[in-house]
Amino acid sequence: MPQTSSTLDLIPDIEPGQWEKHDGFRATTLLYVTDPEDNATVRRFAALFSRFIADYPAWPPDPEGVTRSMLRAVRADLRYLEGFLAEAGTQCVRVTVEPDEQALCVFAGRLAGEIDKLAERIGEELAR
């Protein structure tokens, strides 16, 4: 049976200036890979995959443009995070959680709404 580790050990605290070191798979996906060795392997594969994609000859997309494409990708990721946080916000309704976890459920649900607004702003700007 694989060894499991706390998510505190598996989810990095990403500095915005170092985001490219964490390109690949989302932390929200990797949190389910609880075996430390497997988690490290998946992260190494993600780094390799990201380098492959960065060298893909069709980049930048044409005629859309680099920045527009990047913003559309960010909006898609925000929508994913909005759904993930909304799901986290329902945990206190679907399962019994500790009081401190209850507050985090409510917080996650509120964050989902804030991310919705940010994604909407990006969509509005792209529509101009």
Radius of gyration: 18 Å
Biggest beta-sheet profile: none
Spatial shape: flat
Order of helices and strands: HHHHH
Head-to-tail CA distance between termini: 54 Å
Mean pLDDT, to the nearest integer, reads 85
Structural class of the helices, strands and pairings? mainly alpha
Enumerate the spans where pLDDT stays under 50 for 5 or more consecutive residues: none
Question: Given the structure, what is the number of helices?
Answer: 5
How many domain regions? Answer: 2
Q: Bin the helical content.
A: 55-70%
Percent of residues in beta strands: under 5%
How many strand segments?
A: 0
Which short descriptors sum up this protein?
128 residues; mainly alpha; 2 domains; 5 helices
